[in-house]
Amino acid sequence: MSDSDSDLDVGRHETLLKSIKDIGKATKKPKRLSPKKSKPGKVDVSELVSSIHSTRNLNDVKKQIEVPVKKKKVKTLSAPLHRRAKDRIESAIAYRETNKELKQWDPIVFANRAAEQLVFPLDREDTMKVETGAEKAQSFKPRTPLEIQIAEVLNNSKSNLKNSDLYTESEKEIIKAMSLKEAREKCAQLQKMRALMSYREAKYKQQKKIKSKQFHRLKKRQKRRQILKEFEELMTRDPEAAKEKLQELEKDRALERASLKHRGSNKWNKEIRQFASRNPELRKIMEEHLRFGRELKRKYGEKLGDADSASESSGGEDEPGTSEKKLTNEEILKIAAEEAAKSDPSKEKLIRKASENPWLRSELSKIREKRKKNSTKNSISAKNIDDIIDNDESNFLKIQTTEVNEVPVELIDKMEEVDGMETQADFLAAAFEDDDVVADFEAEKEAVEANEKPQNIDLTLHGWGDWTGPGITDRKKDKFIVKAPEQKRRDKNRIGVIIRETADKSIEKFQPKIVPFPFTKASDFEAYIQQPIGRDWNTELTHVKLIKPSVVTQAGRIIRPLDKEAVIKERMVKEMSSSEDEY
C-alpha cells in the first residue's frame, strides 16, 4: 500500500468511529444547501487574460464581460404651475416665516401694552450713570448738516489734538523742520500757551458760575470801558478808520431797528415758529436772525434797562460813569424821537435837534411834563363827571308822599317779617346779580323742546302733475304734508325740570362700547372711573400717580426702533436671573 492509501484509510476509520458513537443520539434534520451568489469583487487583468485560450472564444469572453444596461423610461415634463398658484404658495411660505419671526416680539408688545407708563426712547441710558467727555465724544454721531460739516472739517484738519498725543500733526511737522534748540523752545512755548489756555478756561468757568448781579454788572462796565478806550485810541491813531467803524455800527443799528426779525415777540417770528419744527429752512432763518441779534447786542453792549439800573446802582463812581451816562442819554433821545414820529411829526424835529444840541434838551423835559399834566387832568375830569352824575337831582324820580300819623301794631309785625324776607331776597339777588339763571334755564328748555319736537313730513313731489309750455299759467299747488302727531311732554307743567325724550347723540362718542384694555369686567372699569383724582381727596403722591400720562417723550431725543439682538439678550439675562432667584 502506498502512503496515500494509508491516509484515506485512517480518515475513513475515524468517520466510522464517529458514526458508531452517534447511533444513540437524535438525528439532525438534513440541511438544504442552495447555491449562493458570490460577492462581487475586483477582477484582475491576469484573470481575464487567463480565461482567453484562443482567438476563437474572444467574442464569448466579451459577451460575459459586458454589463447589461437597463433602458430608462423617458418621462415627459409636467406643466409648470400657474402664476397665481405659484404666488399663493410663495406668500403662504413667506407668511409662515414672518409670523415665526414676529412671535419673538410678542412678550415685549404685551409688556408695553400692560405698562402703566411708557417713557420714550425705550433704549435710553441709565440716568445715574456719569459719562465722561471722552465717552460722549466716541458715541457722538453728527446728524444735522452743520454737525456733519464741522465733523468733516475736524477730521481733515491737522490741528486736532488727541488725548493720547502731546502735539498735533501740524505742530509735529513744524518741530521736525526745526533744529534741536529751536524745537525745545517751541515745545516750551506750546506748553506755556496750553497752560495759559487751561487757566483762562477754568477762570471763565468759575466766573460763569457766579450768580452775583453786582459782579456781572461790574464786568460789563469794565468791558464797555475797554471798548470805549479802544475806540478813542483808534480815533487818535486813525480818524478815518474810526469814522468808518462808527458808520458801520450805525448801519447795523438801523438795519436791526428796521427789521427786528431777530426778536421773538413780533408777528413774523410767531408765525414762523409754528412751522419751524417741520421745516429745516425756516429753522435756519430763525437761527440766523437770532444770531444776528445777539451779535448786535454784543457790539452795542448791554440793553437800555441794564444801563439805567447800572447808573442807578453805581452812584459813587467818578469819571467812567460820565461816558456811560452820555451813551444812555443818546439812546433815550433816539427812542423818544421814534415815539414822537408815531404820535406827532412836529415834535420829532425838536427831539432830533435836542439829540444834536445839548442846549435844547430842556425843551424835551418840558414836553414830558406837559404830557404828565394832561394825563392827570384827564383822570381828574373823569372822576368829576362820575361825581356830578351821582349828585345831580334831575337824574332821580320825584314821587309825592303822604304823611302817616299812626301805624297799627299788626302792620308793624308784618313789616318786620317782610323786611327779613327782603334781606334774604337781597342776598340772593346780590349773589346772582350778573346771572339771569331763570331766563337762561327757560331758554335752554325751549331749545330742547324745539329740537325734540316731531317734524312734519313733506311728501310733495316737485314737478309732478305740472304742465309746461307756451300759454300755460302757473298754478300754486297745495303741498302734501303729513303732520306729525302731537306728543305730550312729561316736563310741560314742571318748573325747573328738563326731561329729555330722546337720547343725546353728542355723548355717544364718550360711551365705551366694550370694556377697554386692560380691564376684563365692567364693574372694575366703573370703579376705576368713579375714583376721584383731585388733590382734595388724595395725597399729593397718589394724585401725581393717578394723573401721570400713559406716554412720555423726552425732548430732543431720537426715538429709534428697538434693537432685536439687544432686546433678546436683555430678556435672556432677566430669565436667567429669575431662575437663579427661584433656586
From TrEMBL:
Subcellular location: Nucleus, Nucleolus
Biased composition (Basic and acidic residues): 322-331
UniProt region (Disordered), positions on chain: 20-47, 302-331
Gene Ontology terms: biological process: rRNA processing
Top-level taxonomic group: Eukaryota
Major localization listed first in the record, in broad terms: nucleus
Biased composition (Basic residues): 26-40
GO cellular component annotations of the record: small-subunit processome
Keywords carried by this UniProt record: Nucleus, Phosphoprotein
Similarity comment: family membership: Belongs to the UTP14 family.
Name used for this protein in its record: U3 small nucleolar RNA-associated protein 14 homolog A
Species in which this protein is naturally found: Acrobeloides nanus
Organism lineage: Eukaryota, Metazoa, Ecdysozoa, Nematoda, Chromadorea
